[in-house]
Amino acid sequence: MNTKLPARFWIETVLGIVSAGCLALTLVRPQWIEIFGIEPDGGDGSAEWRIALALVVATAALFTLARREWRKRAS
After folding, report:
1. Average pLDDT per block of 10 residues along the chain, 75 residues long
2. Which of 3, 2, 15 is nearest to 64 (CA)?
3. What is the rounded CA–CA span in Å between residue 43 and residue 32?
């Protein structure tokens, strides 16, 4: 079995970790986006929930793609 994983696997894994970290930050401190002076939702918090939902989707997709690369390499 060739254990050398392609760069695509590592890129997807690192981006998945970054996305998961941003998701955690959004869930713990939802007002982080407002440090840039941007208040897209007028302060009601709906933008933060949309960001969290998008990060959940991105994290799941990236880890699914990385898993697919892992399994392809393992077989």
Report:
1. 80 95 90 76 81 94 94 84
2. 15
3. 12
Per-residue tokens: 20:
């998961």
Report the alpha-carbon distance of residue 13 to residue 61 in Å, rounded: 10
Match 């970290």 to its residue by tokens.
Answer: 21
Instruction: Name the nearest CA neighbour of 70 among 9, 11, 1.
Output: 9
Cut 0.90: pTM above it: no
Per-residue H/E/C for 33-57 = HHHHCCCCCCCCCHHHHHHHHHHHH
What is the Cα–Cα distance from 31 to 19, expressed in whole angstroms?
17
> Under 8 Å CB-to-CB from 63, ≥6 apart: which residues?
12, 13, 16
Angle between helices 46-74 and 7-28 (to 10 degrees): 150
